[in-house]
């Protein structure tokens, strides 16, 4: 019996986020069950820890990476590669993948993958050096969208676009067909690039409307205070992290999902919103790859705060589950397709 190849995933944490949910779902597929998966994370525990362990993953913690702990991190990475006899390093940490990939090269890891999950507009000596290391020492570069790949790897190199797929067998969400009252849903981390303040401002302009935000993050208290300041705190609900966010969205009777992102790598919540049949409003900063069902999506400019949501909802027609599944398969947004594509890279050497 052949021994399973050993994959080291390097990611900052296993808290709820698009990358983390993708990795959790990939572990549930047949393609990924053929490997032993290790997860190198910074020391704090994460929301998905128990699920990852139940799915056969092993979590290895290191101290939070700072100037004072950088050498300690390098020492631990080398030790893990040698002791665990890692065959594949799959780095999910944006520019810092440059360090991980370079160390993996020095210690003879045959397959070294840099995976870009989020956009970045940084351009300085650090990003230039990391991009150089990524492009020179990666055996494969993956991005969830064209724009994300360009932002991390640059425009003069090749990379493979693999979209963040989802499971196509989880449709039990009750959709609201009413357009009044307006009940907005939003699922994301509470961080500047997700732009939740835009949604709170929108609620202040729409009488008899509600906003339900599912997610957590460093801006939570600031956003709560802002909703109080402009007098809409009785219509803005912060529900925290949820294991099944779209079940909650159905429970809150949301009739539209809105994602006014300033930057977006791909947006698993955005494609899930379409999968569950919700009319979905996105900013023009969201990559085109996240538009799976065009009739369900309205793209807006953040410079125009006057969004005609009522007309969009009135024109929106319910789509059958069969047709939705066909869209997702044709657009390569099925988790099985994603797993097979990544699995083929794992077997490339």
From TrEMBL:
Molecular functions per Gene Ontology: glycosyltransferase activity
SUPFAM superfamilies: UDP-Glycosyltransferase/glycogen phosphorylase (SSF53756)
Residues forming coiled coils: none
Pfam families in the record: Glycos_transf_1
InterPro entries: Glyco_trans_1 (IPR001296)
This protein's name: Gt1
PANTHER family xref list: GLYCOSYLTRANSFERASE (PTHR12526)
Annotated ranges, domain Glycosyl transferase family: 171-289
GO annotation terms (biological process): carbohydrate derivative metabolic process
Annotated organism of origin: Proteus mirabilis
Lineage of the organism: Bacteria, Pseudomonadati, Pseudomonadota, Gammaproteobacteria, Enterobacterales
